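Query structure, 141 tokens:
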């Protein structure tokens, strides 16, 4: 029963994201793709996943794993937006990835290397390629 409820919630959230995306103001002669595309795609994927979850026959088993791990990731995710401005995107994202990796029993050195690489890749992808301004923090990059 809970899977059907989660599916319906996903459908509603996806529909809301699509509806909200269509209300975004697009200036004349703006980028032909516009700011509506990304939230519309995310909303459609969320609604489609919700439909599949809601109409799927049988029961879906949800596996959360160990609660301390989930709690560590949840706390890290809640602290992350608070650290974005003072530390900047790269350092805050690297700390989030490092904490999440340690929560899933990664060794510290590979977790640190992976966290830094992940933060740098996302920074280049979002800031340089997609031209989305990200908080710079004390590093200034």
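Result returned for the query:
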């Amino acid at each position: 029963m809970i899977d059907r409820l989660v599916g319906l919630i996903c459908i509603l959230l996806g529909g809301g994201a699509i509806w909200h995306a269509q209300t975004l103001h697009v200036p004349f002669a703006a980028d032909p793709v516009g700011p509506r595309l990304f939230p519309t795609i995310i909303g459609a994927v969320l609604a489609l996943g919700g439909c599949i979850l809601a109409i799927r026959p049988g029961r879906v088993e949800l596996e959360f794993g160990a609660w301390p791990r989930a709690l560590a990731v949840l706390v890290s995710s809640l602290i992350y937006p608070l650290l974005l401005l003072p530390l900047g995107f790269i350092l805050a994202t690297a700390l989030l990835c490092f904490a999440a990796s340690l929560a899933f029993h990664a060794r510290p050195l590979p977790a640190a290397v992976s966290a830094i690489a992940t933060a740098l890749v996302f920074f280049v992808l979002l800031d340089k390629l997609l031209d989305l301004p990200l908080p710079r923090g004390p590093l200034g990059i």
